Amino acid sequence: MTTPDVMPDAAYSVDVIERTDNRMVLSLGPQHPSTHGVLQVVTEIEGEIITKASPEIGYLHTGIEKSAENLFWSQASTVIERMDYLSPLTNALCYYLAVEKLLGIDAAIPRRANQVRVLFSELSRIASHCVWLGTGGIDIGALTPFFYCFDMRERILDLFEMSGGARMHPNYIRVGGLRDDLPEGFLGKLDGVIATYEPRMRDLRGLLQKNPIFQDRTIDIGIIDTADAVAWGLTGPVLRASGIAYDVRKAFPYSGYDEYEFDVPTRTEGDAYARFLVRLDEMDEAMRIVRQVRRRLDEPGPVQIPDTKFVPPPKETIALSMEALIHHFKLVSESFRVPPGDVYQAVEGPRGELGYYVVSNGDNRPWRVRTRPPSMYNLQVLKKLAVGELIADMVVCIGSLDPVFGEVDR
Hints:
The protein is α+β, with helices and mostly antiparallel strands. The chain has 17 helices and eight strands. The strands form three sheets. It has a three-stranded antiparallel sheet. The protein starts with 23 loop residues before the first strand and ends with a helix. The model is unreliable at 1-12 (pLDDT under 50).
């Protein structure tokens, strides 16, 4: 009886972790809160040292991209905002920038609409980093920063609720601009957030930045050098903490970002502490942009393009104009059609380069929506940076990457 041919180990495309006499296999997650979502990491350990780490994703399949392809162009943002649920307005902005390019109306977006889009993008960056900082502190045993961070995040979510009617998924950014202008009282609340920011960040830096326990848990932990950061396709704070000053807002400006003064914070150490410092500096730069936008918002202006083929006419005109009523009915019942073509649009999200590749076949629905999620690319480096670290440091490594699994699994 002949033995069948056995495939060589090189033929397997997945990591195979086997238990030996000196090593054991430990599964971390996907239910454990320290994995920051439904992530399972199958680790091989020798004593307390990690010798191999294999991230396993796929526990949060939502089918968002396929769902978007079955919705009107103007409806797709309702599901797209739920990919990165910590920064939903950034997702909506990126998607609608791509749609506006396909329509050829990207240059016609009103100045005030772009200002508010930038404002909400930067407030979303701060709010997202507040979640990262608060939960990352809990990972290491620092509970107080969580309350400081979420108080600041709640103040920002109050602004989203005022403008869009919802705290997390406001659906405020639309094709051609915004749903409405900023409501009465918004600028006063924004001034309060701006005034609160500096003393609150001073407290947070005082609690963590020079804290010897925090430094011991993060310095020289999860090091990513410059060459590896580029080779693994990392973006955002994870890349900038390794010395590469790449930021989509500077490299490929959108929504008028080239009109604002801000710096791109970088570090060269590439460890978890460097990623911590870069994100804190990013929050300061985001608030710097917010202040610049605030000074320009006193000047009124339109927030939507006047073309009612893509933007619903003002409600007060529907009862007076048959043409306005027809445009409104057509947009609600069958939306608008986008000329055939494809486009890739990228923005700088809180976790890095967020991109949408959108394809139109001339229909009133997108033919293809494909996301380039920064969390997906940043997370894969975990299998390299965790090797050689302690089991307890795996928690720090995951937290320092700041993954959001709504956009990893989609």
